Amino acid sequence: MTLLAGKNAIVYGGGGRVGSAVAEAFAAEGARVFLAGRTRARLEEVAGRIRAAGGAAETAEVDALDEQAVDAHADAVAAQGGIDVSFNLIAHGDVQGTPLVDMATADYERPVVTAVRTQFLTARAAARHMMPRRSGVILLFGGAGDPVRDFPVGGLQVAFHALEAMRRQLAAELGPHGIRAVTIRTGGIPETLPRDFPGREVIERGITGKTMLGRAATLADVGAVAAFVASDRARTMTASTVNVSCGALTD
């Protein structure tokens, strides 16, 4: 039996690199995937691949920073059999490559504000539907980490630390209702970097060089782990992080 048979899973940012990989892994394990994002064409491309492989996928244009849009979409999904999994993977608008002392205030705070707002809105919307059913999984992506010394990452790490604080609070408040909250940490995925990204080679070497296995996590790795964590086989896992970093992250 597949891991997520009969489950409904929302993937915000489902047209992105990580979001699409997770969505395809969820679908391969039997989930009905609801792809949410701001660009319909990218969502439909992912949905097309899922359907071609025999999976089930629906798409919706949703601004995951818009409270009313998030709530309305969650209500619509819940009306089709409930929400079992919610995973927010939208981009945070972070600016990298600029030292903090040279960075504009807006560029520094954008990923922090974006990450906190969108995760709060989507987690809250899902939890409201999960609570009456006394089950559900809220997944987060990123996780706290050490300061990056060899490349300026702006407010990104601050955003990840803020999300970890939220994950701990979600797990504490929602645990009595049977809802789990888990963060997936990777230490970096070279595949997600555009070919023309400034400092790409430096970042790739930095990611791989810190691992114990001599390689970094791939998008397929992240998707496979996310599907397991979202499944009932991981039903004892909450208030925790899952390390998918090939040994780069040791705490």
TrEMBL record:
A Pfam family of this chain: adh_short_C2
Keyword set includes Oxidoreductase: yes
Keywords, sorted A to Z: Oxidoreductase
InterPro entries, per the entry: NAD(P)-bd_dom_sf (IPR036291), SDR_DHRS6-like (IPR051122), SDR_fam (IPR002347)
PANTHER family documented for this protein: DIHYDROANTICAPSIN 7-DEHYDROGENASE
Sequence similarity: Belongs to the short-chain dehydrogenases/reductases (SDR) family.
Listed name of the protein: SDR family oxidoreductase
Protein species of origin: Amycolatopsis melonis
Lineage start: Bacteria, Bacillati, Actinomycetota, Actinomycetes, Pseudonocardiales
